[in-house]
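Z., the sequence and structure:
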Amino acid sequence: MYTIFILSDVKRPPMPRVSAAAGIAPRPLPTPSTLKSHIYQGLREAIVSGRYRPGDRLNESKIAREFGISRIPVREALMQLQEHGLVMNHERRGMFVTRLSEEDVQRINSLRVVLEAEALKLCRLKISKQDAARLHDVMARMEAWTERTEMDAAALDLEFHRTLWEAAGNPYLTRALDSLVTSLFAHKALEHVSADVKRWNLHHHRALLDVALGNSNIEPEAAIVFHMRTGYNEPERFSSYGAAGARGDKGPAQETSSNRNRDRPRKA
C-alpha cells in the first residue's frame, strides 16, 4: 500500500495555531485569505510524515479543533487534497487518506500507456516552438538537479510530463492524464532511493523528449512503456500493449527491455 501526496514544490509557511494536545506550540493564526493553504500544507505534511496512514479517516471536526479554527477552511483544504489524489471521499463516511493496491497502480499505468503515447504522437506531429522550448527548459533543470529533497526530483518529473501533455494541444487529454496519473507520481516520490537513482530517472526523460520532438524513430507506445519500466514492473500489464507481449508479439519495448537497467545506479 502507498501513501500519496501532492507534488507542488512550495515552501512551508508558519503553521497556524495548534492545540497543546497536538504537541506543537501555539502560533498566531494566518490571515483568512491564506488560512486554507496553511491547513492544506499542514495536512499534507501530516500524511507524508505518517501521522495519517493510507486508509485513515480525516475527521473534519477533530482537525478543526487541533488547528484551533472553524471547520470551513478544513473542509476546503480537504477538497483541495482530494483534487490532487491525496484523499478520497467515501459517501456518508467522510474523507480518507488515499490507498492504492499494486493492481490499482498497474491498471492506472495501463491507461497511461495509451493516453501518454497519444500525447507523444500529437507532440511529434504539431508541437510549437514555444512548447518545445518549455520542454527543453524543464529537461535542462532535470539534468542539472542536485540532491535536495525527494519532492524536488518528483516535482520536476511531474512538471516535465504535464508540460508534455499540455504541448499535445488537447486540454481534455491533459485533464484526463492529470487526474489519472498525479497519484502515481506522488507515491513514487516516497520511495527511499539514492540521489544517483533519482538523477538517473530524471535524465531518462531525454529519450521521451526526443520522441516528442520527432528526433527518434522509437514508436510512442514503446517509448512510454520503456520509460515507465524504470519505476514499475510490467506497467503495461493490463493494456492491449501488454496483452500483445503476453502472446509473444515482440514490440520495440520488449526488444530493448534487457538494456533498460544497464546503466542504472543501485538503490540506497
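The two ends are 21 Å apart (CA to CA). The domain at 20-97 is CATH 1.10.10.10 (Arc Repressor Mutant, subunit A).

Let me know what you think.
H.
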